[in-house]
Amino acid sequence: MKIAVIDFSSTSLSLLVEEVSGEMMVPVVGLRRSVSILGYMSKKGKLSERGIEKVVDSIRYLMEAADKVGADSVRIISTASMRIIRNYGEVEKAIKAGTGLAVDNLDGQAEAYTDYVANREYSALGSTMLLDIGGYSSSLIDMDNPSIDRMFTLNIGPAALFQKFDGMYPDKEDVRKMRHLIARTIEKNLVFPEKEFRHLVLTGSNAEALYAVYADHFSIPDCTFRTMERKKLKKMIKHLVSSDDRALILIRNVPEKVHTLLPSAILAEKIASLFSADELIVSDKGVKDGYLRLLMEENNE
Q: In CATH, what number does 119-282 get?
């Protein structure tokens, strides 16, 4: 049986199809369609008519791709990106009318839990935090003690941070303000007070984009186990904030993330610094993978 899930995020819609057999899940296809809702949002937080059309068209495209590989069922999920849209009801109705499918809108707790389910093998490392760098929110999970009260989803995603400053890229003062906001949000929400982690596992498309730029900047060859050093990441941020070749490296690697790449880097580095994690590991599994794994487990039961 092949199950497909389409994920609605702030910068794209993505498809994952996996073949399920008993307790085994094998990826069949992964596909992403760039649609940045930032470009279609009004100042009041409403998605424009053209933006809604782009979303529906992209979902149809991904549904066709899922059908071509023989998917038996398709689910659409959304996380913080859909939750922040003021005219969410209008968007949801348009998706249902245009595709025949309803959207399963995950709340912050469900989003964090699916991240944990997708990445729980990293618990074996010990002293590990999972950070899902979303668009408008980020989830932080203590992998050593993955109870519901040790999973936080906070409004400090890179798209939310980007909206705090003017211009295409943050300057040094913007970086300082973002770092302060991140630290204040962590402290205010009592996220793992007085705890340190040796490892920080990053997930989400923004984490993937961040590693692409990091690998290019430091000329790292392709490898299966992708890691970043916190000190080197901090140096890269300083370079991207002040260098004339910033636009070139971003457009070359992550053209759809030019607005959110630097806020993603600042967020990852600041979280790592706050919890004394020197190693950042980039996972290739996220909400879609966890969602499918939960569906499989429910079917087996």
A: 3.30.420.150
